[in-house]
User: Which sequence fits this backbone?
């Protein structure tokens, strides 16, 4: 994921290796690391903002409409979906200035 609108950052301690730009659930909070680090190291993570997604960020077979529909994460797979059942809401799929993005709300 690539951040295209300033959000909100936190400094956290990695409980496992993290990869820059690869969003994941940090407890009950979806975060996008600004750097890659090994487990046990501090890292900065975005918790809000607008992000251009890579194809690998979205569950195979899912095509968001980017019309403000809700975005959920499948925690076990670390990918986004439009399916609410059993998943955690993390934001919205929107079109921001002509670009399809994930609006991460920190929820």
Assistant:
């Amino acid at each position: 994921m690539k951040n295209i609108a300033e959000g909100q950052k936190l400094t956290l301690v990695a409980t496992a290796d993290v990869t820059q730009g690869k969003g994941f659930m940090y407890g009950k909070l979806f975060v996008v690391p600004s750097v890659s680090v090994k487990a046990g190291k501090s890292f900065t993570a975005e918790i809000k903002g607008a992000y251009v997604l890579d194809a690998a960020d979205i569950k195979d077979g899912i095509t968001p409409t980017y019309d403000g529909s809700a975005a959920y994460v499948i925690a076990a797979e670390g990918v986004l979906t439009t399916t609410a059942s059993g998943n955690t809401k993390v934001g919205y799929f929107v079109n921001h200035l002509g670009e399809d993005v994930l609006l991460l709300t920190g929820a």
The longest strand covers residues 2-13. The two ends are 18 Å apart (CA to CA). The beta strands are 2-13, 24-26, 29-33, 42-52, 69-74, 79-81, 88-96, 99-104. The CA atoms of residues 6 and 49 lie 6 Å apart.
